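Worked problem 6 (solution included).
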Amino acid sequence: MELLYCGDRNAEDGILISLLSVLKQETAELHVRVLTMECRTSTRAYQKIPSFFAGYLDKLAKEKNPGNWVRLYDMTSQFMAEPPAPNMETRFSPLCMLRLYVDLLDDLPDRLLYLDADVIARAPLDDLYHTDMEGFEIAGVLDYYGRWFFHHGRHVFDYLNSGVLVMNMVQIRKSGLLRRCRHMCATQQLFMPDQSALNKLAAEKKLLPRRYNEQRRLHRRTILQHFTTSFRFLPWLHAVTVKPWQVDRMHDILHLHVYDDLLSQYAYHMSAIRSQGEVKND
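Solution. The predicted structure is:
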């Protein structure tokens, strides 16, 4: 199984939790690519994920299966060669757009399963990963809120959430989908830039059941839970954002304790990673 994550140092907590959850569920051999970069805008600075973090994840993965591996790819030069200039200062990190550059790698498989760093696996992912992609560029689940506001194809509801994507890299290479998405992000200001570009430009999108990207609340059949921003109407209309590494908020706001064992593992390993980083920096 070929997995893809993207992010800077701020994504390390999420990537660690997500990968731990996948390792807990999967017996298949896992090849994990992590795309990172560093850049600076007028208001923000992004630091790339260090090699010792990826090395620690690689060791963890190999403890489960010696054939597993985790590789870190510094995409700074590729990103800066085609920067999404109009979208660098949105509320969404430009690191999200790194997934649009994955076709520039030399060692690409025919298929990738992309996961956002705030996605937790609750069951094996084999059925999702091996879904029939004949004729489809990407497969995903409808965006819980966006499906009501955005429409780009034949279906009444067709606006995918890009936090969980099966990517048919054979078809994507043929169509040039990611190259065209990069051009759109470089020339137009977009709402949720990479997600908007993928939805607008993908000729064929496969709609998957909600259980593969549950964005609202946990259900018995949920395979992947995605901790996106949601809205509550009581006692007043307000947005709620809780991420898995915010353990107290997971308990106090979402009242979720089902991941306590996973989060205990995360705390242990993140402490070890930070200690290793302090040694590296001495």
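Discussion: Residues 23 and 61 are 7 Å apart (CA to CA).
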